[in-house]
Structure formats: C-alpha cells, structure tokens
Design brief:
single chain; 122 residues; mainly beta; seven-stranded mixed beta sheet; four-stranded antiparallel beta sheet; 11 strands
C-alpha cells in the first residue's frame, strides 16, 4: 500500500508563490509516476500536472503551463508542485496522486492524498 500526504497549502496574494509537497510511503516511490489534481467547491476534479518515473516526461494543464512546475526527490520520497504567479482562479483543494504508469496517473491514479487547501486572494 502507498500513502500520500500533502502539505504546503495556505493563503497567498495574487502574484505570489507556494510550493506544495507530497510525502509518499514505500520503497517503490521512485518507480511510480506522480501527479497533481485540484478541485474547487462545486466543481469537478481537474488535472494539473504529471511526471513520469521513467524518462521524466511532464504534462501540464493549459491553465497552469508556464507558471507551475512538478518535481520529485526520490531520496526523500517526496514530490512537489511549485506554483508561481498565482491567480484567484487557482484557488482549490490540491491533491497529489501516484500510479504505476504514466497514462494512469493522468487518467485514473492508483493512489490519492488527502488534499491541501490553496487560497489566492485578489
């Protein structure tokens, strides 16, 4: 079993930055693809970013491309989402996720974190 725990959310002014962290359990972390989704109140969960474990391929939603960056530190079993130039529309609960394949982490992740709230004020 894999457990994911997010941290780093909070309140930030528009134009500011936050870095979300996701701590993962298990020795298989380095072999798992990872990603981030977000969900605003009353809205469907939305794909944000993903990163493969093999060749490091990344993907970003158009809404965050150029502002967000996904990364991982396998030695610490931790993945990150660096969020810059934040906008009020970025306000949501952010969830980290992991999967055994890159396609799965984008479409149907195997594991989810509990979520961390990000609020961007105007």
């Amino acid at each position: 079993q894999v457990q994911l725990v997010e941290s780093g959310g909070g309140l930030v002014q528009a134009g500011g930055s936050l870095r979300l962290s996701c701590a993962a359990s298990g020795r298989t972390f380095s072999r798992m693809s990872m990603g981030w989704f977000r969900q605003a109140p009353g809205k469907e969960r939305e794909f944000v970013a993903a990163k493969s474990w093999g060749d490091g391929t990344t993907a970003y939603a158009d809404a965050v491309k150029g502002r967000f960056a996904i990364s991982r530190d396998n030695a610490k079993n931790t993945m990150y989402l660096q969020m810059n130039s934040l906008k009020p529309e970025d306000t949501a609960v952010y969830y980290c996720c992991a999967a055994d394949s890159y396609p799965a982490v984008r479409g149907s992740p195997d594991y989810w974190g509990q979520g961390t709230q990000v609020t961007v004020s105007s």
